[in-house]
């Protein structure tokens, strides 16, 4: 429906199927004003149907009341203490303020020491009465509460909590080891209303906080901004709320310790590089799914939420590693172990129009000898953008079966997109049948309006309904649709999109418009008149002057034409402010307006409205942020119905705390701009904290046109992200890596490394899955005694062994990077030369990085198990092994390897291999039943200072012709080991001595 793109000449055959429409609101795909007329007209949803009320966020409202200045707070009474904590009743300490809702007069306080390193504070309404009868407390079946250790007590805890009623109730959580308050509400009042909850904590000046997602910004959160948590379908704005909700943060503090053991807090940015410091990290999780707003201030933060309870858990650490493990193991769950193939390279775009085009793309990867593991489909394959329904003209099932058989036989895979909304057929058109809706309607599994009728919004197909995950039948309905469709299309995973949940209109706009279905979205799709893509990355004009000038002129003309339309509400339009009504919740326009990214900050814009009602009577207002979480859960279990023995592969857009148990995540609809490549690193690191290590972004950018230089750098950077996918928008220029010769070469260079270290990737993920460790790591987390690393997010670690320092700016031929730990004896080796890096502690070192080269470094003390690169992971797994040993400052090193069949949910046979190097000997100990038949080819040892004498493998002397030592690089290479390991590299324990 969106035209057929000729990839050879880059032109469009414009569609003739749309009526006249205009818009000022963008969807998850970019949008622009447009007018189209033709002989045949399809109804277009009016653009103003997605317009919000004229609201203003209270944070910016000069007339907004500061609840801290007018509310009375609470006083604790009826206190009952025990060794595990206390309970109490909190009563209003004065006249209700009712500033943004109705004050709750009585609350229950519970303080519980859950474990030696975990403490919980919970505050909920005492009883249900006319003032708080509509309270929603988060369901523990959806988001479990943190677990409790039966031996926990205040005496055994790392933390201590104290409280006082002077002048009103407040509490302070202190770390016993330092005497430092990690959370302190002293000097503030607790505000607890039916649509507004607020608490405040002080923080040290120049604090180091990480997390509170999802946002695109630097890794360390700035102390002068407002962080909003409300799941939103919007194309990756910087510093605003995005698709997911993760109300968790890591707080790291650095101390100077004197000879008496006294700790003095120091600001990371002002630390003396010549001194040694210690650090303590703790985590805070706010178990609440309502819309939230966190105001970061110079010496504290204010946390506000539009409902629910206060349920705070503190994790004492004291390292980032321990905080992250504790958060996952005790609270949100461990991340899913991905199938081995998922770490290969993935190719996608919005605009692959048929199976033949997909086959051409796959063939081109083979032709140019670029690894390709999985080909993806965006919404192009769908019949009228309907889930679980192929377009039989462009993606017929019979042709698809043939294509997928061939694809699978080559060792490759196929993953399509599924959206969260379900098309509702036109009742006036008997040929517009849609079995998925019919089955769902029969089981009554869709969201409702308050009056009990089906809630009908609008997404890509036109007017749509939405699954209600509170209905006990809905998960079975969803699983059945996946199973039924899989019988027609042999998918290898599912890409879940639009699950915030998104709707292109405000309210149940389709209730009286179903006779218009199928309908065009209320904005122009990319490539349609008025929304032709002319954008290129910064720096494009330097190397492509003629093309850049033409694009700039055309873009200006398009923008001028669009400006002749509606300019939007006048700046003099009065703001809509909602006055609280006692005992009544205003669901669609709550009295407190969070700093939401949509038009007017309206919660109903571009989303299912807050008054949509679930099976159990709960309204969307209370659970909006959980929709994406629950559809990922349903999809995970649906794929298990397809094959109960195979790990489901899911990449989802909207996530919540704990979604990593079921799915990975991609960074959403970014742009082909250098800034988005830059911010992809802190995005990925943040999701490491959130327990979703399977993360990547749309490489080379989604919105806009990329260019050769940006795609060159980005394809190399993403090769070191767990999820590695190239994806771009409809009508943009092609950006498969083979389009440009230099990009193809750069891609193959980076993929040579990625495919060689696939066993390392897989081992890291198994450790994350079993222990809660991170895969991509910030330097500050791995080197916690160095305050200078607190804000570094332009380079990162992959596990503990590899460090990547990418170029993140145009026209650069070098990059600056820091090599942490040098002061304490760390050694870093260049991946390519194998030589030790010559750098000084704490100094940014200039590293040559011409276009097509990404600097990669190996940390001394590491052992990396590797196999040979290939075009697919299946082929790579059948190649001989090699070991890269990077000796540390004392000549020692260690490493691990985990292997299984790469896909089973509960593998019957596994293998764990431990590598240990000391005193010029590499010892290998293998445990498990997995039989690894591939032999060992070579061991390369970095940092061997003197020429070795006789080299022995086990009891046998390795022939001198297979032993090489470079006196300049200090590299020892021992080859010819395949005959000595004919039964498999790790079929038994062995030692290599030199």
Descriptive report:
- There is one protein chain.
- Residues 1-40 and 567-571 have low confidence and may be disordered.
- The chain is globular.
- The relative contact order is 0.11.
- The strands form ten sheets. Strands 3, 4, 5, 6, 12, 14, 15, 16 and 19 form a nine-stranded antiparallel sheet that branches. Strands 29-28-27-26-22-21-20-31-30 form a nine-stranded parallel sheet. Strands 41-42-43-49-45-46 form a six-stranded antiparallel sheet.
- Among the domains are: 60-332, Immunoglobulin-like; 777-993, Sandwich (Immunoglobulin-like), CATH 2.60.40.
- It is built from 16 helices and 49 strands.
CATH topology of the domain at 60-332: Immunoglobulin-like
**What's the rounded overall pLDDT mean?**
93
Q: Any guess at the CATH architecture of the domain at 60-332?
A: Sandwich
Anisotropy-based shape = globular
**The CATH top-level class label of the domain at 60-332:** Mainly Beta
- Measured as a percent range, the helix fraction is 10-25%
Cα(first) to Cα(last) distance is 67 Å
The main sheet comes to: 9 strands, antiparallel
Number of strands: 49
CATH superfamily annotation of the domain at 60-332 = glycosyl hydrolase (family 31)
Number of helices: 16
Query: How many whole angstroms does the radius of gyration measure?
Result: 29 Å
Structural class estimated from helices and strands = alpha+beta
In what range is the share of β-strand residues?
15-25%
Low-confidence stretches: 1-40, 567-571
